[in-house]
Amino acid sequence: MATTSNSIGLGSLLKCSDEKISVAVRFSSNQSYIANVGIKDTILDLKKAVALEANISPRNINLVLAGQLLTDSTLIQDCGLGSHTTLHAFFWSDDGLASGDVCLGTTHNDKKTLQTQPGPSMESSSLDTVHNNEISSGVHLNRQEDVPQRRESDVDGDYLLRRSLQQTISSLGTQLSACTNIRNFSRFLVYCKLCESVQPGKLRLCCKQCGSGAFLVDRGPCNWNDISSDTSIRGTCKNLNCSCDIPRFYLRCCQHHEGDIDGTAVGLKHVQPNSRRVECIICSDVMSHVLIFPCSPGHVMCLDCFRQYGSTCLSERRFIEHPFHGYTLPCPVGCSDSHIEESHHFLLLGQEKYERYKNFGAEEYVLQNGGMLCPGPGCGSGLFPATDDRLIRCRECQFESCRECRREYHVGDCEEYLESLRLDLSNLEINNERALRASWERESTNLIEETTKTCPGCQTKTERSGGCMHLVCTRCRTEWCWVCVKPWNRDCQADHWFG
Amino acid sequence: MAGLPRRIIKETQRLMAEPVAGITAIPDEQNARYFHVVVAGPSQSPYEGGLFKLELFLPEEYPMSAPKVRFMTKIYHPNIDKLGRICLDILKDKWSPALQIRTVLLSIQALLSAPNPDDPLDNSVAEHWKTNEKSAIDQARQWTQLHARANNVNSH
């Protein structure tokens, strides 16, 4: 059987050679410039275009992508830019003072001096191939010198100024050499709510405090912890009024979406390109992208099987409630403390199931914490009744229910009330739509009463679709007997396990 | 019917190429989801020397749902009933798609080595086991001789 691929959009990374894109270059002063550049052009070409408009020297402009300075020789196409992407810039005046915003890219030259090693699970990805091909196609490099040297040559005169510059330059040098290549950023996969699919993510960052994109990081991120909210990565905010050294990372879909707003792409930390061509433990196929559980063997599932496994476990209520990660899916092999640690992965199940997942998660939280769900028609709100009264009133729908039998509130014994529900009212002559609806409700109630039995642990109406008489409640985990409607015991097992 | 999933093909190939000791599982000629299984009674157990026929069926949802397994050969065991149905959690709520035909059959083989009369399926067998283990084991051994002898299975 042929190996198939999960569909991952790489469209924006594969552009035809003469394509032009317009890029917005934004300085901290909120001046923005729009430049049309060819994707085979270099960052220096872009700087020249902006410099012409801004009436400054190209060498005074610094462009940043994802916390990294872009070197002049970097090709536009290697930056993973979409149309109208905003690059943050800061101005480097000849007196050594920096100002301004920033935010974009890095260069393939970084590869030689790459210090940060990608984590074991972040090794070469299928995306590398794409970029490597692009790089080999080359471009007219006007200047090959590296940035520190060039900067140094700009300095003359005053010793203090020189020293201050040298310090800055050396820090820039570190930043450049430590920078992870843009290719590493593409290893972060996202679920894009607009594309409704898994896409390579574009990693962006800004200053955690002032939000400025003109922020340079000391090293590039190489794993998910590095880009989390408690990242250990530090850097320098180029906003002169800000002294914050902590970056805030965020991800965008690699596809350009008009009016792209934060939150439309969410990172999928467990999903990775299947560079080692590992078989899915469920279907045995080798797929291009896989989900890896965080257990030490790193059990691998393809995304199709994850969808199926997730859907099955969701409908059978086999998700688990984890104190930190909430309602989630455990590793199918049963490895301890191995589960999906980020709930957005369940977007992969599709919007409808994701909504159901969120509902179930909320319900599970209520039930696990001693609450109950309102039995009112179409309600299901979580309730934490304060008193021991038998009457429970829902704050949302005002439905009044009985704590004992979870049916509508009634006076007297629950069994007698149930009998009264079964009274035949068909002889009564009330013929209007309301009565009809009431009779539907009654029929539906009757159907539920006929086809279900009530879990002796939590009163959940339970339908048995097959199998033996030994039921395990998916909500409260009570083991009970379908025949006796009592907790499962040895006699049940011996006498009527299979009916 | 849709083609056989790669997973089932691979499991079948592996079962044939690297069979588990004491277990054979051969797919039916007409239906690749139906397996003719023979489990040898484990040594040191009253089922030693017996060959037990089972049927195993992979439902359409497999591996998202568990295989259906049943003993065809009569067996005197507190966790297996007269109809050959088996009391095993991994065939029910403890099923996981990471389990395989191979692991299921190994679990069944282990169940033969370690009957659990405290979690019985057949109460009278369990009672026998608990009140007079020696006699129950004797009976299991007799049934093995009576119903599970090698030539019985082969001639079937």
TrEMBL record, chain A:
Q: Which residues form the RING-type domain?
A: 276-499
**Matches recorded under InterPro entries:** BRcat_RBR_parkin (IPR047534), IBR_dom (IPR002867), LUBAC_E3_Ligases (IPR051628), Parkin (IPR003977), Parkin-like_IBR (IPR054694), Parkin_Znf-RING (IPR041565), Rcat_RBR_parkin (IPR047536), RING-HC_RBR_parkin (IPR047535)
Q: What is its EC number?
A: 2.3.2.31
Give one Pfam hit by family name.
ubiquitin
| Chief site of localization | cytoplasm
Question: What's in the GO CC field?
Answer: cytosol; mitochondrion; ubiquitin ligase complex
Family, similarity comment: Belongs to the RBR family. Parkin subfamily.
Name under which the protein is recorded: E3 ubiquitin-protein ligase parkin
From TrEMBL, chain B:
Return the InterPro entries for the record.
Answer: UBC (IPR000608), UBQ-conjugating_AS (IPR023313), UBQ-conjugating_enzyme/RWD (IPR016135)
Q: UBC core domain: from which residue to which, for each copy?
A: 3-149
Which PROSITE patterns would you find in this protein's record?
UBC_1, UBC_2
Q: What are the record keywords, sorted?
A: ATP-binding, Nucleotide-binding, Transferase, Ubl conjugation pathway
Catalytic residues, chain numbering: 87
Q: Which GO terms describe its biological process?
A: protein ubiquitination
Which SMART domains does the record associate with it? UBCc
Segments crossing the lipid bilayer: none
Check the UniProt entry and state the signal peptide residues, or none: none
In terms of superkingdom, the source organism counts as Eukaryota
Report the GO molecular function annotations: ATP binding; transferase activity
Q: Does the keyword Transferase apply?
A: yes
PANTHER family assigned to the protein according to its UniProt record, in alphabetical order: UBIQUITIN-CONJUGATING ENZYME E2 (PTHR24068)
Family under the similarity heading: Belongs to the ubiquitin-conjugating enzyme family.
Name of this chain's protein: Ubiquitin-conjugating enzyme E2 N-like isoform X1
Q: What is the lineage of its organism?
A: Eukaryota, Metazoa, Spiralia, Lophotrochozoa, Mollusca
- Which gene specifies this protein's sequence? LOC106059534
